[in-house]
Write a structure and sequence with these properties.
Blueprint: E1 14-23, E2 26-36, E3 40-46, H1 52-59, E4 67-72, E5 75-76, H2 82-87, E6 90-93, H3 105-109, E7 116-117, E8 124-125, H4 127-140, H5 157-170, E9 175-179, H6 187-202, E10 206-211, H7 214-220, E11 223-228, E12 231-237, H8 243-251, H9 253-274, H10 277-283, H11 287-296
Parallel strand pairs: 3-10, 3-11, 6-9, 9-10
Antiparallel strand pairs: 1-2, 1-4, 4-5, 7-8, 11-12
The structure holds adenosine-5'-triphosphate and magnesium ion.
């Protein structure tokens, strides 16, 4: 198997080629190509219904693709469940993070993978170790929590996302998939989460960052896949695309231009309509009756 990628370097962690997914006769995704490499952030952008969640569901093992190939480190795969994906180091952080709000941060950090000490019937949770590890792992990501004993529900949305990212890193994820982690956050908190995405990349993970927002994607992304109604309408490395081009693609460039043209026309018409009828009659013979007609409506 070749170990070169589109950019001519190494085997990507993930590679999707011509991937498609149908739900009955709805085509949710078709002909999508994507590569995720270690130490890179791959951004998936698109409007509502573009197929972003469908794409991550395929990558994370929740759904299977109907056509195309999905390879992990060069080997074709077909995951039966998210557990299979996780076993291959593919961790997904969903927006409604699966946390237990009333449990302490450290309990949530180790949820489902608790550390124990002692043997057999005498084994018990190694609370000290879990507390210490949580604190040091969060600190290693630059997250400074006052108290890992506080219930995770008391953290801000941004902080909770950061804990989830640190957890995936600690449990050895190679690929980290983040489904719109910044969607519900304010500017400052979104900035914090973006910083941790960069940290995960610097630790050598391949990150898939799903977002609506080109302003969040552009500064931290290495590759950009733009989806529209289940199809790829652009797949670029950062040096191939500017922030303006990304924004315009994302917004449907031509449609947006048409819309702004229509809005300008509407604004001009409204301004003309607002001008006094005598004024308008004096300048253009047509405007006054038009304005009167508008008023009569
Ligand atoms: N389980 C399903 N059954 C039927 N249709 C579905 C299902 N899941 C998604 N779809 C359809 O597939 C298309 C893509 O949906 P998807 O959820 O992947 O979009 P999205 O890009 O994640 O959108 P959003 O930004 O709103 O989350 C949509 O038209 C959606 O209605
Ligand atoms: Mg979605």
């Amino acid at each position: 198997m070749s170990d070169t990628t589109a950019t001519g370097t190494r085997t990507p962690l993930l590679r999707l080629t011509g991937c498609a997914k149908h739900y009955g006769n709805i085509i949710a995704l078709t002909g999508v190509d994507l590569e995720v490499c270690a130490g890179e952030v791959t951004c998936v952008l698109g409007d509502n219904g573009a197929g972003k969640s469908t794409l991550i569901k395929i990558i994370s093992g929740m759904h299977q693709h109907d056509a195309g190939t999905y390879e992990v480190e060069g080997e074709p795969v077909r995951f039966a469940s998210p557990r299979d994906a996780l076993d291959r180091g593919i961790a997904t952080v969903y927006q409604d993070l699966a946390v237990v709000p009333l449990m302490p941060v450290w309990r949530n950090f180790f949820l489902g993978s608790e550390k124990r000490k002692g043997f057999g019937p005498f084994s018990r949770l190694d609370v000290d170790l879990m507390r210490r590890t949580t604190k040091s792992e969060l600190a290693a990501m630059g997250i400074d929590l006052r108290d890992v004993d506080q219930p995770i529900g008391t953290l801000s949305g941004g902080e909770r996302q950061c804990v989830a990212i640190a957890r995936a890193v600690y449990f050895g994820a190679k690929v980290l998939i983040l489904d719109e982690p910044t969607a519900a956050l304010g500017v400052k908190q979104a900035g914090v989460v973006l910083r941790y995405i960069v940290q995960a990349r610097e630790r050598g993970l391949g990150v898939v960052f799903i977002t609506h927002n080109p302003h969040h994607a552009y500064p931290i992304g290495d590759r950009f896949l733009i989806l529209n109604r289940g199809r790829s309408i652009g797949y670029h490395t950062k040096d191939e695309i500017t922030r303006e081009e990304l924004t315009s693609l994302m917004a449907g460039g031509a449609e947006l231009e048409q819309l702004s043209h229509e809005l300008e026309q509407a604004a001009t018409a409204a301004a003309n309509g607002a001008a006094s009828p005598s004024d308008a009659a004096g300048t253009t013979g047509r405007t006054a009756p038009a304005a009167e007609k508008e008023e009569a409506k």
